[in-house]
Amino acid sequence: MSGVGGHQALREAMVATARRMNTSGLNQGTSGNLSQRVEGGFLLTPSGMNYETMTPEDLVLMRFDGSHEGPRKPSTEWQLHRDLLQARPEVGAVLHSHSMFSTTLACLRRGIPAFHYMVSAAGGTDVRCAEYATFGTPELARHMMVALEGRKACLLANHGLVAVGADLPAAWKLAVEVETLAAMYWRALQIGEPVLLDDAEMERVFQQFRGYGQ
């Protein structure tokens, strides 16, 4: 595992993504956090640090045993990131945000059902809402892992959004997609209950997406 100054390109990409989270409206202030898998562990954003002044050197290098290197304290949600990256080798990056519409639904303890076919982007027929637990606790990480079974994104009750990807761009893209879906679903709920797509249609959607793109 490289030292504190290693992984420079990944560190720079993480800082750029963290800043983009705020400028895009996906996150606010110092809330939210990012992680990126590296050999033997992962890079993680520091606790309570302004993304605009954060530098690549401020990112924390963590091991799966919870130890870390660097001048900063790791995010209080380090267990959430550690548990996900340790349990799911296909995940290379984790993005957690307090995005407005996803968090609104999470405060209602309401997931996102199959009201639109793009819900399938999160890996299943819905985006689940995990049970509530205090931030930064092992209980929160456990509830999140249950909600993410067979999924790539979930809501955290009274808290926010988690999205994963093979790399940072994939996690970013999915987080934006889920937040967009949350906004659409919230708006639809102002008028009534949206008509949901059934499992058979969602399976057809999954099949269609297998050949989608260039």
Automatic annotation (TrEMBL):
SUPFAM superfamilies: AraD/HMP-PK domain-like
One GO CC term on file: cytosol
Residues covered by the Class II aldolase/adducin N-terminal domain: 12-186
Lineage: superkingdom: Bacteria
GO molecular function terms noted in the UniProt entry: aldehyde-lyase activity; metal ion binding
Keywords: Lyase, Metal-binding
GO biological process: pentose catabolic process
Gene3D superfamilies: Class II aldolase/adducin N-terminal domain (3.40.225.10)
Coiled coil: none
Protein name stated in the entry: Class II aldolase
Native source organism of the sequence: Corallococcus carmarthensis
